[in-house]
Model the fold of this input.
Amino acid sequence: MQLPSDVKRVLLSVEAIDVRVQELADQINTDYAGKDLILVGVLKGSFIFLADLARKITVPHRVDFIALSSYNNGSVSSGEVRMIMDVRSPLMGHHVLLVEDIVDTGHTLDYLFRVFAMRYPTSLKTCVLLNKPSRRVVDISATLDYVGFTIPNVFVVGYGLDFADTWRTLPYIAELKESCYS
Ligand code: IMP
Done:
């Protein structure tokens, strides 16, 4: 397979992602049996993961989105998170599952969990595709419910994840060459 020149290696193949997303969906289908669910995807990074996950979820569900902006310089998050687009659905009295691409420092998930908990959902859980625990700054272990893969401390792109808004639509998850972001 011909990789883009900025890509060092494929970390997670199309097949590995598909198998794991099905496993996550199976678990969610079991856990939410008999319940209605609102899936809230965090744009832009989660859009491909959410699209695949939602189509494997068989319990009744709605899909909504939020968009965040974190002040950062390329690959480093400053820890300041702002919501720039909110959900359209009221969350009060509903089972809410936040769907995020990756947890790195933990600032984003920590912020989201606090903001959404204040809206009195019946339940609030999180589903993240990738977990980079070695980079954690905020302890959010209690709010990590469904995790696709735990990965090492490398910058990854593809399957929704970007670097400076590029490489989002690679079908696999790849490690970017350090020279691109260091
Ligand atoms: P956190 O707030 O540091 O946990 O970072 C969460 C956000 O940082 C994610 O939603 C991504 O947008 C971005 N991010 C962190 N690590 C990576 C990566 O390896 N590739 C692409 N984006 C990343």
Observations:
- The pocket of inosinic acid is lined by residues 45, 77, 100-108, 155-157, 161 (CB under 6 Å).
- The two ends are 26 Å apart (CA to CA).
